[in-house]
């Protein structure tokens, strides 16, 4: 006697439909957008050489909180709540990108001092060391970006601290969306770079 089984076709169709709906709901196939921070533009003209020698500055590895040191761009949705976007990501490590932009900015801002700003390596002997600890670097889409950072300047030759300061910077995004937010974050880094450069301008 043949045993009879209910048809499996309706079950298969139901499962397939569920998978398709899940793909639509969770954005399957949606492309990921990648973003990078932008340094200050370099001046088109050349700076005339001065009689005094330039200064050498090393930027120590920037310290970042774990909640933003990740591939996804972090936005602030509430005072105590953040969101991570799986489809809007950094085009590389955020911590390294932040440091790269700072080095570029300081070289631009201190061009008149003939400064040579590099990363802290064993390949050159810097006169000054800059340390930066970022405590906050996020923002609200279409609204405000925050950069809170503590920083120091060390005179390595004289073995003394020249500055210990905290910067609290806000920038308004020019439009909605992640591109405008990242542009505002780049401007925030530029503001921090200007504050640090201003301390070096005081040096005789």
Descriptive key words:
three-stranded mixed β-sheet, 3 helices, single chain, five-stranded mixed β-sheet, alpha/beta, 204 residues, elongated, Rossmann fold
Would you kindly provide a brief summary of this structure?
By secondary structure, the protein is α/β, with parallel strands linked by helices.
- What is the element string, with H for helices and E for strands? HEEEEHEEEEH
Shape: elongated
Please identify which CATH superfamily we are dealing with: ABC-type transport auxiliary lipoprotein component
Strand order of the largest sheet: 5-2-6-7-8
Overall structural domain count = 1
Tell me the β content. Answer: 25-35%
Number of strands: 8
CATH topology: Rossmann fold
Q: Please, how many helices? A: 3
CATH architectural grouping: 3-Layer(aba) Sandwich
Mean pLDDT: 85
CATH class: Alpha Beta
Characterise this structure.
With 204 residues, the chain is of the alpha/beta class. The chain has one domain: 3-Layer(aba) Sandwich (Rossmann fold). It has helices spanning 9-25, 94-109, 178-201, and strands at 33-35, 56-59, 72-78, 81-90, 116-119, 128-139, 144-155, 160-172. A hairpin with a 4-residue loop joins β6 and β7. Residues 1-9 and 15-27 have low confidence and may be disordered.
């Amino acid at each position: 006697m043949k045993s009879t089984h209910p048809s499996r076709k309706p079950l298969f169709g139901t499962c397939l439909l569920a998978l398709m709906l899940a793909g639509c709901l969770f954005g399957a196939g949606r492309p990921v957008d990648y973003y990078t921070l932008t340094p200050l533009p370099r001046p088109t003209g050349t700076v005339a050489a001065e009689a005094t020698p330039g200064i050498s500055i090393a930027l120590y590895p920037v310290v970042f909180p774990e909640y933003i040191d990740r591939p996804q761009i972090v936005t602030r949705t509430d005072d105590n709540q953040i969101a991570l976007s799986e489809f809007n990501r950094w085009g590389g490590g955020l911590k390294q990108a932040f440091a790269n932009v700072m080095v570029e900015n300081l070289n631009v801002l201190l061009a008149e001092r003939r400064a040579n700003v590099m990363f802290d390596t064993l390949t050159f002997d810097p006169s000054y060391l800059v340390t930066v600890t970022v405590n906050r670097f996020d923002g609200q889409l279409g609204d405000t970006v925050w950069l809170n950072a503590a920083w120091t300047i060390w005179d390595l030759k004289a073995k003394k601290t020249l500055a210990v300061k905290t910067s609290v910077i806000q920038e308004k995004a020019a439009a909605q969306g992640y591109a405008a937010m990242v542009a505002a974050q780049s401007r925030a880094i530029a503001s921090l770079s200007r504050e640090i450069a201003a301390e070096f301008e005081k040096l005789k």
